[in-house]
């Protein structure tokens, strides 16, 4: 199922604030929490990149 450009832009609008929210946990005293935050940030950066590439092709 193909997503529309508007849906992809919506993905970007959701992913960026999530990255900023998760960045607050990068300084966590618990190492596992910082690792999870980094994984979440990386995943959302992938979402932004995929949405951008797909929108560029259209």
Describe the structure.
There is one protein chain. By secondary structure, this protein is mainly α. It contains 2 helices and no strands. The longest helix has 27 residues, at 31-57. The chain is elongated and about 45 Å long.
The percent range for strand residues is under 5%
Head-to-tail CA distance between termini: 15 Å
Report the radius of gyration as a whole number of Å: 13 Å
Q: In this structure, how is the largest beta sheet organized? A: none
In DSSP terms, counting alpha (H) and pi (I) runs of 4 or more, how many helices? 2
What low-confidence regions span 5 or more consecutive residues with pLDDT below 50?
A: none
Order of helices and strands: HH
Q: Quick one: overall form?
A: elongated
Please tell me the overall pLDDT.
90
User: How many beta-strand segments?
Assistant: 0
What share of the residues lie within helices? over 70%
SSE-based structural type? mainly alpha
How would you concisely characterize the structure shown here?
By secondary structure, the protein is an all-alpha fold. It is 79% helix and 0% strand.
Strand-helix topology:
Layout lengths: L4 H19 L7 H27 L1
Helix pairs in contact: 1-2
Key terms:
mainly alpha, single chain, 58 residues
